[in-house]
Specification:
This protein has 129 residues and is an alpha/beta fold. The chain folds into two domains: 70 residues, Roll (2,3-Dihydroxybiphenyl 1,2-Dioxygenase, domain 1), CATH 3.10.180.10; 58 residues, 2,3-Dihydroxybiphenyl 1,2-Dioxygenase, domain 1. It is built from three helices and eight strands; from the N terminus they run βαβαβββαβββ. The strands form two sheets. The protein has a four-stranded mixed beta sheet. Strands 5-8-7-6 form a four-stranded mixed beta sheet, with helices on one face. A hairpin with a 5-residue loop joins strand 7 and strand 8. This is VOC family protein.
């Protein structure tokens, strides 16, 4: 099976990626705007065509500014799993500071630590350890 990499459309990919870098850990490694390609309409010049957010564990999230109307969140969930409960709890707490907790972070009967949060951009995160 190939490597799965989420690609998130956003109203403001740079701000959303900055938020994830600060709350979940990681760094924005590249940003390409439509204007940098030289083949776009004027109103799209500053829109992000492709952004790569590299997470601390070596995985990455791709993002772009939506050029068509869309609804944030749109029914998908992202799961991020940590080796240590303390790392997962820290990530959960940072997301919770500006998001909406759906399931409090705690050890669950199925053996994992688990919590669920919807961030300010409408994306729901499942945090596990």
């Amino acid at each position: 099976m190939g490597h799965v990499r989420p690609f998130i459309l956003s109203k403001d990919a740079k701000s959303q990626a900055d938020f994830y870098a600060k709350t979940l850990g990681g760094v924005i490694s590249s940003v390409l705007t439509h204007g940098q390609t030289g083949e776009t309409r004027h109103e799209l010049q500053d829109k992000v065509m492709h952004l790569c957010l590299e997470m601390e564990d070596g995985s990455s999230i791709f993002m772009a500014d939506s050029v068509e109307p869309f609804t944030q969140g749109s029914g998908h969930l992202l799961n991020i799993s940590y080796k240590a409960e303390s790392q997962a709890r820290e990530a959960f707490d940072r997301l919770a500071s500006s998001g909406q907790v759906k399931v409090p972070f705690a050890q669950k009967p199925f053996g994992l630590f688990y919590g669920e949060i919807t961030d300010p951009y409408g994306v729901t995160w499942m945090i596990t350890a």
